[in-house]
Design brief:
It contains ten helices and no strands. The chain is mostly helical. α4 runs parallel beside α7 (118-131) and α5 packs antiparallel against α10. The chain starts with a helix and ends with a helix.
Length: 197
């Protein structure tokens, strides 16, 4: 029985991912997932209890993909260059996986009654740690507690800007490329952090 359940689970996750990639976030409903997968809505809820849990699984897979794309970056001796290279890889991921990123972003905009699962939070921390692994080299005089806050604020700022990478808002600003906005935000922040000490 366990093998049948895990096969159903895997099939639903795979089909749901295809739906998001091909059709977009708004297409991911229990009814549409049921139609696409051939499983009943009841089966979907038996596997995941609710669609939020299903989205959490999808987002954890996306965070794993983000990490896998960042870990391929070759590090240099230059901390600024490394952080910028991680940002560029992140921007590239968002461009190439805009619907998956939208699912992740929009999920975080909604109010959640329950705390996110620990394994979900661990994935976010893992991505942040890698992206900002050279953060301490930029200003080694900053205390670890303050550095942690600075990294979180920067992460939130970049995360908040990320949906603009997947829509046409920047078309109103002919002189600003989408990725340039993220790079300016990152480097202005790092420069300000360095000058403030």
């Amino acid at each position: 029985m366990t093998n049948i359940k895990s096969e159903i689970y895997i099939n639903l996750v795979t089909k749901g991912r295809e739906l998001v990639i091909d059709k977009g976030v708004e297409y991911l409903t229990a009814r549409k997932l049921s139609e696409a997968s051939g499983y009943s809505v009841g089966t979907i809820y038996n596997q995941f209890f609710n669609m939020d849990n299903f989205i959490i699984v999808q987002n954890m897979l996306t965070l794993d993909q983000v990490y896998d794309s960042l870990v391929k970056i070759r590090k240099t001796d230059n901390a600024y260059e490394n952080i910028n290279n991680y940002l560029s890889a992140g921007i590239d991921f968002v461009y190439k996986n805009s619907n998956l990123w939208s699912l992740l972003y929009e999920f975080h905009l909604r109010k959640h009654e329950d705390k996110l699962p620990e394994e979900y939070a661990r994935r976010i921390v893992k991505v942040m740690k890698l992206m900002f692994s050279d953060f301490s080299k930029i200003n080694p005089g900053i205390k670890q507690k303050e550095r942690k806050i600075l990294k979180r604020v920067l992460w939130l700022a970049l995360f908040s800007l990320s949906p603009f990478l997947t829509n046409n808002l920047f078309e109103n600003f002919n002189d600003v490329r989408r990725e340039t906005a993220c790079q300016l935000l990152l480097n202005t922040y790092l420069a300000g952090m360095t000058s403030l000490g």
